[in-house]
């Protein structure tokens, strides 16, 4: 079949596949769900799902903080009227299950067979202001929960429907903000926090940043391609190939029902940057042969033959780097690794089908300065090569010193995360969350499952007393600022039966009195805050609370102390407990982060080692490939330790990705060296010629990779920022190692055995 006809058929087939992919891409949706970051398949996750089915999710709520006007107290009638109006407005909104507010909080009093709920606050009766405020400060559970200790702000907490999705959640938040504006409450006077708020903001920013970073990457890569090739086709063709691969990758992701989240949002940018490598190697070799005077057909065949092995091998190693992320128990990381790895392989396919087809159908390019002897990069690369070899001892010694310092610094890296890890300190959303940390109980939920021993009820006096001891420990030692449990119910019922007197807010002293209280508990079953603490048959209870977001390192230490306390002070024959909840699951990811990272990195290194051994049948060659690519990884780990960057979900992916990408240039170099050695009798001359031939592509691809990843440093997400910065640094250090350590290692290891490296690989001679 004629070459042009084959090219037309290839373009037609690829266009059809792209059209189908575009159809699926159009159905792709953005999503960010904190629940996706729980450790999949973990027994604690299974337990929490069952627990939340019984008691409800611990993070399906929104906190609305309202500040009183400057110089005023929250107890002033005018302010309380606004609070009450907002409370009623929110309660009437769809998807709102329950609202807890200072103006609807009541002091229940039992008289006869009825319950009278007496409000703590009376906005319409200014004369009762002093009396009301005194009662509020004496009542447990109001100050630091609904009313700030300095009486300058209040909180309205509204419970939402379970796992509310973004569209109805956004509508609810928009309605609340509109009502706040209508009542004359400015942006600086209110604060919103909660899972739904963070998810809404994250998704909106994901959409915006994806567009911005893709635009920046396209502009940057376009400029670099232009300065490299100085031809329109040298710019347009790589862009077409990579954009096609991105569409295919996103289409496949959509067809599999996966949405774009904080991790998979990196796929288009990652692929756009990484996918340029193959096309640049092909076009660089193609244009070089054209510059030497070869025909278009011969130039293309030489470029495909010489680039095919290296590009195929580099695509394999890069995709393996992403596929190793599938060892993670965190679903977004798993999806990101899977689909990006597949997309890298799709890019290779398009680079060797779509790109050659377009080059065949285009006229023979007219280069600006055709050359028959060398090209403009030869002089610069030649001087670099001579300098590196002349000062090889300095290069090796300096590398060793930097490596030792990096390893020492890397030992300072700590695994730590918080609920809003990916937001910077000055982010408005994080500042709103910090408002509740400073003035109220905090935003970090706490959950402890309470299971009475067989034959006991959650309302047994001994069970309640042990629960009370746990409450005291959690408030005094653990750091909970708000706590509620079955003890809260019994104490509240006792207080209600004794005229609502605060001194009666305590557990009964006898089983007889407790039995009387338990019989009256049914009077309070309509109160949502009580209903969520004990199952109807009293077979299981819940201890819930809130505290500041202290970070996973501190939380792990507190949880270890708590477990020790429970072992020593809780009798399993009376009560058993289990720590659970969303915050506990997020913290538990940290236990898996190190293992997942080491596993992924080990798999990556082992796979690359096996591939090199299989293809080159040389242990020396594995060292030649691994050393220049592990050195940059260790240096960046040292930078992380020196800068105090913690290991967390987002940064844990950096090393496996960087290694998979960085090894590409080494493989291209080695594959070209083997081809050159089939013609060159001298190892030194072969290395020098390969250095000149591959050096340009190595530098250009590295600049594009570093430049593309550097656009991510403008992200408002800390995780994305560090992915861009640290992978960019790794690749920058990688190209330096490639142009310095690699030729030194080759000449050192194969100085007396050039025949070993000269042995052709079957794929290279086909």
Automatic annotation (TrEMBL):
Keyword annotations: Cell membrane, Membrane, Transmembrane, Transmembrane helix
Any single Gene Ontology cellular-component annotation: plasma membrane
Domain of life (superkingdom): Bacteria
Entry protein name: SSD domain-containing protein
Compartments, as annotated in UniProt: Cell membrane
Transmembrane regions listed in the UniProt entry: 210-229, 236-260, 266-287, 308-330, 336-362, 394-413, 593-616, 623-643, 649-670, 691-715, 721-750
One Pfam family linked to the record: MMPL
Family: Belongs to the resistance-nodulation-cell division (RND) (TC 2.A.6) family. MmpL subfamily.
PANTHER family recorded: MEMBRANE PROTEIN MJ1562-RELATED, MEMBRANE PROTEIN YDGH-RELATED
InterPro entries for this protein: MMPL_dom, Mycobact_MmpL, SSD
Principal cellular location given in the protein's record: membrane
Organism: Hymenobacter metallicola
Membrane topology of this protein: Multi-pass membrane protein
Domain SSD: start-end pairs: 239-361
């Amino acid at each position: 079949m004629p070459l042009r006809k084959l090219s037309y058929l290839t373009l037609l087939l690829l266009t059809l596949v792209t059209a189908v992919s575009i159809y699926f891409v159009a159905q792709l949706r953005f999503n960010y769900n904190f629940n996706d970051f729980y450790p999949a398949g973990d027994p604690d996750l299974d337990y929490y799902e069952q627990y939340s089915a019984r008691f409800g999710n611990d993070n399906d709520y929104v906190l609305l903080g309202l500040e009183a006007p400057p110089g005023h107290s929250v107890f002033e009638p005018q302010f309380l009227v606004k609070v009450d109006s907002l409370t009623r407005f929110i309660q009437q909104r769809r998807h709102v299950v329950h609202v807890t507010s200072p103006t609807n909080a009541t002091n229940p009093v039992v008289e006869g067979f009825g319950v009278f709920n007496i409000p703590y606050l009376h906005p319409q009766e200014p004369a009762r202001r002093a009396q009301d405020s005194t009662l509020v400060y004496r009542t447990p559970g109001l100050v630091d929960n609904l009313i700030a200790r300095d009486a300058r702000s209040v909180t309205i907490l509204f419970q939402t429907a379970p796992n509310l999705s973004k569209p109805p959640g956004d509508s609810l938040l928009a309605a609340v903000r509109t009502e706040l504006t209508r009542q004359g409450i400015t942006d600086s006077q209110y604060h919103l926090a909660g899972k739904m708020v963070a998810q809404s903001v994250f998704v909106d920013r994901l959409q915006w940043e994806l567009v911005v970073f893709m635009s920046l990457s396209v502009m940057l890569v376009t400029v670099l391609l232009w300065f490299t090739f100085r031809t329109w086709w040298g710019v347009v063709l790589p862009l077409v190939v990579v954009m096609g691969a991105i569409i295919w990758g996103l289409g496949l992701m959509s067809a599999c029902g996966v949405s774009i989240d904080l991790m998979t949002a990196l796929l288009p940018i990652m692929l756009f940057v990484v996918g340029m490598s193959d096309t640049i190697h092909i076009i660089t070799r193609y244009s070089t042969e054209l510059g030497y005077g070869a025909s278009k057909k011969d130039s293309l065949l030489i470029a495909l033959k010489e680039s095919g092995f290296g590009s195929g091998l580099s695509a394999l190693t890069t995709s393996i780097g992403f596929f190793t992320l599938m060892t993670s128990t965190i679903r977004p990381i798993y999806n990101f690794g899977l689909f990006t790895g597949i997309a890298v392989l799709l890019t290779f396919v398009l680079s060797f089908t779509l790109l050659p087809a377009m080059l065949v159908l285009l006229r023979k390019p007219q280069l600006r300065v055709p050359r028959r002897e060398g090209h403009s990069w030869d002089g610069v690369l030649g001087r670099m090569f001579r300098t590196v070899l002349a000062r090889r001892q300095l290069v090796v010694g300096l590398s060793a010193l930097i490596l030792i310092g990096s390893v020492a610094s890397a030992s300072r890296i700590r695994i730590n995360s918080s609920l809003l890890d990916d937001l910077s300190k000055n982010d408005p959303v994080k500042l709103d969350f910090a408002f509740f940390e400073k003035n109220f109980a905090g935003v970090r939920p706490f959950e402890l499952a309470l299971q009475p021993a067989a034959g006991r009820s959650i309302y047994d006096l001994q069970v309640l007393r042990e629960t009370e001891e746990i409450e005291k420990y959690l408030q005094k030692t653990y750091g909970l600022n708000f706590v509620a449990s079955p003890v809260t119910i019994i104490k509240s019922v006792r207080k209600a039966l004794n005229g609502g007197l605060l001194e009666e807010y305590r557990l009964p002293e006898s089983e007889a009195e407790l039995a009387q209280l338990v019989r009256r508990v049914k009077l309070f079953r309509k109160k949502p805050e009580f209903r969520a603490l004990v199952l109807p048959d009293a077979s299981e209870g819940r201890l819930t609370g809130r505290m500041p977001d202290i970070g996973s390192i501190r939380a792990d230490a507190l949880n270890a102390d708590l477990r020790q306390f429970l072992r020593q002070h809780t009798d399993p024959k009376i009560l058993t407990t289990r720590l659970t909840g969303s915050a506990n699951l997020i913290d538990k990811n940290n236990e898996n982060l190190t293992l997942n990272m080491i596993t992924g990195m080990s798999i990556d290194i082992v796979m690359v080692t096996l591939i090199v051994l299989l293809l080159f049948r040389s242990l020396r060659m594995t060292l030649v490939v691994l050393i220049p690519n592990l050195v940059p990884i260790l240096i960046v780990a040292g930078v992380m330790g020196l800068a105090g960057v913690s290991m967390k979900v987002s940064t844990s992916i950096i090393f496996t990705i960087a290694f998979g990408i960085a090894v590409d240039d080494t493989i291209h170099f080695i594959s070209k060296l083997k081809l050159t050695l089939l013609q060159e009798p001298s190892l030194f001359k072969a290395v020098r010629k390969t250095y000149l031939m591959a050096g340009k592509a190595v530098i250009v691809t590295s600049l594009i990779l570093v430049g593309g990843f550097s656009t991510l440093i403008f992200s408002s997400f800390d995780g994305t920022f560090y992915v861009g910065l640290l992978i960019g640094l790794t690749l920058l250090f990688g190209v330096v190692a490639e142009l310095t350590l690699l030729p030194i290692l080759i000449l050192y290891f194969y100085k007396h055995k050039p025949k070993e490296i000269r042995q052709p690989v079957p794929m290279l001679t086909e």
